[in-house]
Amino acid sequence: MPGVFQLSVDERLDHEADRLEALGIPAVILFGLPATKDEIGSENFAPDGIVQRALRRLRARHPDLLLITDVCCCEYTTHGHCGLIRDGTVDNDATLEILGRVAVSHAEAGADIVAPSGMMDGMVTAIRTALDSAEFQSCSVLSYAVKYASAFYGPFREAADSAPAFGDRRQYQMDPANVREAVLEAGLDEAEGADFLMVKPALAYLDVIRAVREKTKLPLVAYNVSGEYAMLKAAAQRGWIDERRAVLEALTGMRRAGADAIITYYAAEVAGWLQESESTT
Q1: Separation of alpha carbons 25 and 268, rounded Å
Q2: Annotated catalytic residue: which of 37, 147, 217, 233?
Q3: What pTM was computed for the model?
Q4: CATH code of 210's domain
Q5: In angstroms, what CA-CA distances link 143 with 58, 228, 231?
Q6: pLDDT tens digits, residue range 165-176?
Q7: Each residue of 144-163: pLDDT tens digit?
Q8: From 37, 200, 217, 233, active-site residue
């Protein structure tokens, strides 16, 4: 996608972190592209895994940056699903132990917040129990509590090489037509001990953000996903929209719907625009 790049764990990562901190962005979320993949995603929880190495480097050089990590199996497995495969389908319960191991390995490397994204039932309990048992009680859990089986994830899946090798993810991700399940899933993750809840995607799901907001007092995050970013970028490049106005309008809509925070590929550009506005007032 325009303006979005994969970064190696070296000076490129440091340069990007410096740039984001200078723009006033307080947090980043890390996704890993492993060197090798296998059936269980071993690099996902390896001490020298790509995310673990990135965490240690960022923690040492950027101590004030809030470090969030994605906790899922899809990018690390040969099959590309968000859980372990048994008899051709995702085994929810077998996946939970792996997610706990991943979360602990990230906390050991310096993560402040771990964010399970696979929509496995019981994932918050499994991760919270694993973190507490390893004495990482201060590591928070941001749950992808409401994640739909959406067409808007396409650009990310291509960039991260994480598309399923067979089937799709509708076994464990949600039906886009169902808002009642969103409220139920958010409530379950809150009861399991999540510190933050997320709705993903955001732009086509503002009503879901509002519905969840009305049922919880936990901080609520909206994920402005890759397809949403790509649509606005493409339209702007063709001169069909005023990019700055359209992006700020979309993000304001997410905030207005009830999001306390927004994860977006537009973060650096928006921060720059806001700095420009402040300098001219």
Answers
A1: 8
A2: 147
A3: 0.93
A4: 3.20.20.70
A5: 23, 21, 26
A6: 665 666 778 999
A7: 999 999 999 877 666 656 66
A8: 200
